[in-house]
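URGENT: need a sanity check before tomorrow's submission.

F., can you look over the RNA-binding protein record below? I want to be sure the sequence and structure line up before it goes out.
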Amino acid sequence: MRLDKWLWAARFFKTRSLATDAINGGKVQVDGNRVKAAREVKVDDKLEISNGEVRWAVTVKALSEKRGPAPEARLLYEETADSIVARETQKEMRKYQADPAADLHGRPTKRDRRQMGRLS
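Structure tokens as predicted:
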């Protein structure tokens, strides 16, 4: 089974083209090596997947040609313990970070634009 198809079926990416772009961009590695989208995935392959800020380290447990519901998709892989801990830690860190757009309320006023002009 093709790697991009498996990533789509396992619900790591919303579309196959997004999965292909991630693979071509080096955001997906199989057994520590950069691969192409057409690479055949086998059971017990170890994948490292980066999707934005989120990173997974998983082992392929099953193959599926169809994209099913999320509970079925989770049966296709097993996430490593280190990966789970890292994702939970990252989730906690994001929770306590301030939202960068929290102080912005719509378009800048005339006064705001003048102040920005003075700064530059």
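My own read: The helical segments are 3-9, 16-24, 70-73, 81-96, 110-119. The radius of gyration is 20 Å. If you see anything odd, call me.
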